[in-house]
Each structure stands twice: as structure tokens, then as C-alpha cells.
Amino acid sequence: MARLLYSLALHGLLPYVGLRLLWRARRQPAYLQHVGERFGLYPSPPAPLPRGERGVIWLHAVSVGETRAAQPLVTALRAAYPGQRILLTHMTPTGRDTSEVLFGEGVERAYLPYDYPWAVRRFLRHFRPRLGVFMETEIWPNLIAACGAAGVPLLLLNARLSARSARGYARFRRLTRPALAGFRAIAAQTQDDAARLRQLGAAHVSVTGSMKFDVLPPAAQLAAGRALRRRFGSRPVLLAASTRDGEEALLLDAFARARLPEALLVLVPRHPQRFDEVAALARTRGLRLARRSSDEDIAPDSRVVLGDSMGEMFAYYAACDVAFIGGSLLPYGSQNLIEACAVGVPVLVGPSTYNFAEAADKAVAAGAALRVADADEVMRRAGELLADEAARRRMGEAGKAFTAQHRGATARALGLVEEILGRPEEATAPAAR
Q: Which of 7, 293, 322, 419 is the most buried (most CB within 10 A)?
């Protein structure tokens, strides 16, 4: 009954779905591409399965962060099951673009349909997955029920659930409990995540760690970072990485007040549709701005560089001296600080870190990161570190040791996959006829 009422409510909202896509397309026109996929409609009928193949391995990674976290698992699956088709589904254009940058033609990709029963059934009939893997926290009641009816086993990997999200799901326990029961196994990032999932009714929950620790800095990105640093010149560089709406204004104002006359501030907004908005914020404060996309040398009197490019986060980390992690200054819960630590960059993180609570606490305890209370403290701490090369080196080495210590979640997740698909040599053997 709860799922029926949920489905009726979704259908009541159907007239507004197109309007929402149009609204989002004002700033990100890619929302008007592949619209049919969001309703389980595809340009061609499903192709016959090749001889011996039993369907695709399907991973759902809703947006950029989940897609990047899935990278080591996709790499492991391609190595373990060579020749096996892999499908990545997303909900945002930036997630889809990230998939193209990371994997190219090595995977198939599509938008996951909205959770209408008829749309998810079309999706399953078209792709015929042999296994579904949801990354982090994705609970879609109709999709999970349809997978159960179609005999598609599901895993929830790299699962995380903040206290805030858990309270939200708890309000709809009659929907959440049977949906969580639809997963064959759940691999949580931390003990706290596992406890919250169990409180909501999840079974077969284990703690495997975060796969984000297994994402290694690509050599090409590190080389791009060195080239970018040459463009920045010899000035000290403070990076504000993956900033969110409202944070850039605070950081720019604090930067203008701070006594950092030689420093260059590199701002990389989390969402590309906000690039022009952030550029205007810098100009209205009288700060000369350069843009990464111009691919020109940075003028000596430029104070701010706008990182208006996609897929280069590791390069930005490799090009800076100190990194502040966005999403942590205002109550967004923080973006991923693990990548900065993996590159060996001293990290500053604000008070809001509920999305990476354990990682942030452990990074601070390891000496890889410092907590700051506000934008002025970002600039004060950054100024101290920019003037102290030895302290930067100590924090950078601590960050590398911290990330190395917590690797291994991908191998544990692959073990759960193998429990369903069989060992690679078994899984690639021709299916019995």
C-alpha cells in the first residue's frame, strides 16, 4: 500500500517533470538531451545478447562524486570480467560527462529512468542486467521492486547515510524498509553508516570502507597539474576546491581582507552552470580574474583564477600549495577531501563535514587537515601554511599516509560481486543452454 501511494504521488507530479527539466536547462542545456531515457525510452530496440552473455553489469552513480568513486570498481570489474558489458547510469549531465571523461567508450551509459513502475520496467527489459550495483545512497522503491520481480540481484556499495538523511528516510519507513530489504548485500563506508542503515531495517550490512580512498591520482592529471602550476608562476597558490553556492562570496571577501598580497586564489565551483556567476563575483570585488578555459598565461596582476573546466580536480590539487575543500563552509556537508590528501596537499576543511564525517575527523587526527570556523580563518590558516614550507611538507606526507592506510574497499566490494556472479573464470564461461 505504501508503494502504491508513493507511485500515485509520483504520477501526480508527472506534469511538473518536464517543467523542472526546462528550468534546470536554463543554466545547463544538457538537461534537454536524452530526455526519453528518463522515462525508459531508448532510440533502438534491445539487441540480442551475444552468445554466452547473460546481460550487462549495471552500476548506478547519480552524479559526479558517485561516478568518480565508482572508478576503481569499474576498473576492477573490467579486469576481472574481460569482455563483459558494463552499463553506467546517472541522473545528472555532469555525472554523465564525468563518465565519458573517465571511461570513454569502455562502458555504456544512460540516464536512469524516474521511479515510475512502467519506466523502470522498460529500462530492465532494454538492458537486461545480470547484476545491479547502486553507489552510495540510492533507494528507489519501484526500481528495487521491479528488479526483484525480474530476478536482478542488487548490491548497495560504498553506502553512506548521514544522520540528517537517516531522519528523512525514517519518516517513510514503510517505503524504506522493504526497499532496503531488496538489496542482496550492503557495503557501508563506516560503522556509523552501517548502524543507521540497520536502524532503517537493512539486513546483510557489512563495513568495507570508502572506495574513494582507492582512487589514485592519475599520472596524466599530475602532469597537467605541473603544467598548470607553471602558468600560475612562482606565487603561492590557495585552491578553493568544489565550492558551493554562497561560499565563493565569503571566500572572495575574506581574500580581499586578508594580507596575502602575493597569493593567487584558484576557485573551482562544484557546478559548471555557476562558472559565469562566480566570475562576476570576483570582478565586482575589483579582483582581476583569469579563466582556466582561456588557456592563456596568468597575468602577474591577476588575483583570482576561475577553474572553469571539468575532470581536472587532481590537476588543480597538484598545482596548488594549500587546498580548502568546498561544501564545508556552509551546511552542505563538505565535498571529497580524500583526493587532496592523496595528492599530498595540506587540507583546510570547514565546520560542515557530515558527508565525510569520519574521513574528515581521521584526516585532522592524522595531521593531514586542519579545521577552520569561517572564511577569515581559511585565509589566516592558509597564510600561515603558505609561509611555512616545512609544515606544508609534513601535512602533505601525512595526507598520503592517511589515504594509503584506508585503501582496500574496492577489493572487498569486488568480493561481494563475485559472490553473485561467480569467480571471473566461472562468470565468463558460456552459459548452459
A: 322
Are the CB atoms for 412 and 378 separated by under 8 Å? no
pLDDT of 168 above 60 = yes
Identify the CA nearest to 412 among candidates 31, 28, 72: 72
Query: pLDDT-based confidence at 310, cuts 50/70/90?
Result: confident
CA distances from 173 to 134, 167, 181, 201, 282 (A): 20, 10, 12, 8, 46
Say if CB 349 and CB 377 are below 8 A apart.
no
Q: Which CATH number fits domain 219-405: 3.40.50.2000, 3.40.50.700, 3.30.930.10, 2.60.120.260?
A: 3.40.50.2000
Output the pLDDT for position 51. Answer: 58
Strand intervals (E) in 116-188: 131-135, 154-159, 185-188
Please give the pLDDT value at position 386.
Answer: 97
Q: What is the DSSP letter of 230?
A: H
Tallying the residues shown for the chain, one arrives at: 433
d(CA 319, CA 224): 8
Q: What mean pLDDT, rounded, does the chain reach?
A: 92
Closest by alpha carbon to 265, among 285, 292, 236, 293? 236
Provide, rounded to the nearest whole percent, the portion of the chain with pLDDT above 70. Answer: 95
Q: What is the set of active-site residues?
A: 66
Please tell me the distance from the alpha carbon of residue 122 to that of residue 39, in angstroms, as a whole number: 8
Give residue for cell 557489512: 206
For residue 355, what is the DSSP state? G
- Coil, helix or strand for 206? strand
pLDDT tens profile 55-92: 899 999 999 989 999 999 999 999 999 888 999 999 99
pLDDT of residue 432: 33
* DSSP tag of 312: -
C-alpha cell at 204: 546483510
The CATH number of domain 2-17+24-209+408-427, selected from 1.10.1140.10, 3.40.50.11720, 3.40.47.10, 2.130.10.10 = 3.40.50.11720
Q: What is the pTM of this model?
A: 0.87
User: In the sheet where 131-135 sits, what is the strand order?
Assistant: 108-111, 86-90, 57-60, 131-135, 154-159, 185-188, 205-207
